[in-house]
Amino acid sequence: MSSGTALNPYVMAQQQFDRIADLLELGQAVRALLRQPMREHHISIPVRMDNGEVHVFRGFRVQHNDALGPCKGGIRFHPEETADSIRALSMWMTWKCAVVGIPLGGAKGGVICDPYRLSAREQEGICRGWVRQLAKDVGPQCDVPAPDIMTDSVHMLWMLDEFEAIHGGRYPGFITGKPVGMGGSLGRTEATGYGIIYVLREALKEKGLAIADTCAAVQGFGNVAQHAIELYEKMGGRVTTVSCWDQTACSAFAVRHKDRIDLEQLRTITDRFGGIDAQQAQELGYELIPGSEWLSDDVDILIPAAMENQITAATVDRISPRVRFVIEGANGPTTPDADKELGKRGIVTIPDFLANAGGVTCSYFEQVQSNINFFWPHEVVLGRLDTTMTNAFRSVSDLAQSRNLSLRDAAYVIAVDRVARACKDRGWV
Ligand code: GLU
């Protein structure tokens, strides 16, 4: 989360945008339009808690840009959420949809709360309250929410139910990440994690490497990280360290195995939001190390799949000389200073809004299926996801090579250019 101006994710997102606006020689009006969100909603959500008292939670929905289609983006539950992190994330959603070529804009939502300290009933109250406050500002034709950090299909269904109660009808296209059988798409749960690995596979291929010859350290053990590990291991890769959040100690720690972690075993000692039980992990033979040490592991690939601001000017020097790839599963895990340093060291960084676009791509598939009320088989969803991610990676990589750009800059050039053109074609600027 943001701590001071230097690491404020919104400042970072704007800095990244400004560089690309210069590269594309964008005019003043389109720059002004794209460097900030078009609309912001800040809301109060009163919820009667289990102890009988009413607690008022603060929530947000920030709609960055909808030139390419209805806004799209997740809703995060986090105790340290800020308006600026949501603003940054809404911008990144716009670029994410644009870079994979799906007809959607960018938005993000959040609520300042700690799900670890809330009962299911209290969380339901927050979900329903969020929708009540925003029922006129979101919807299948204008802004379609989805899960994100510490929200899942259960939260999405409560939100859908509230939206449908308010509007009097069935609107399964209002939200994505719903449970399968209730308008959800097969493959949506694993889509973000799998998408990361499809892209990684392509990046390795270009260097003549195969996943089976690599090992990785992962930060995070939530839905995204777990599914990335699942596919990475299926393709023969080996994960040695996983870092996660200890909600009791309010700090991160990591589990390391001398050979490889056992994903299925770790899953049995992990809570719904990705917290691993440290004591049980130790009993199973894992070494417990400080949370930030995942970064110093002697591996080929680092996969930050937790939060913003993890690879910074202060931590980048700790990366082992062996590391050749950083694939950003999280949004905004690398600060611009650290990014430059990675480039100097010849490390290939696959940027967040390309690497983790599998989630929103599958959300788009879910939206399509929900709207036509006809659902595709699992292999069709994953096949289309693989094709979309692979094509997006290739376009970015081709541009990077032909114009001598980093993958991040190339991805930005493609995305910002598409959105800027849509704004111009609509006659907005
Ligand atoms: N929360 C995910 C993201 O950051 C998915 C968004 C969506 O599916 O709309 O990309």
Q: Give start-end ranges of low-pLDDT stretches.
A: 1-6
Q: Under the CATH scheme, which class of the largest domain?
A: Alpha Beta
How many domains, as an integer?
2
Structural classification: alpha/beta
CATH architecture classification of the largest domain = 3-Layer(aba) Sandwich
Distance between the termini: 33 Å
Order of helices and strands: HHEEEHEHEHHEHEEHHEEEHEHHHH
Major sheet characteristics: 7 strands, mixed
What would you call the shape? globular
**How large a portion of the residues is in β-strands, by DSSP E?**
15-25%
Oligomer: single chain
Cofactors and ligands: glutamic acid
Structure summary, number of beta strands:
12
Under CATH, the topology of the largest domain is which? Rossmann fold
- The CATH superfamily of the largest domain is NAD(P)-binding Rossmann-like Domain
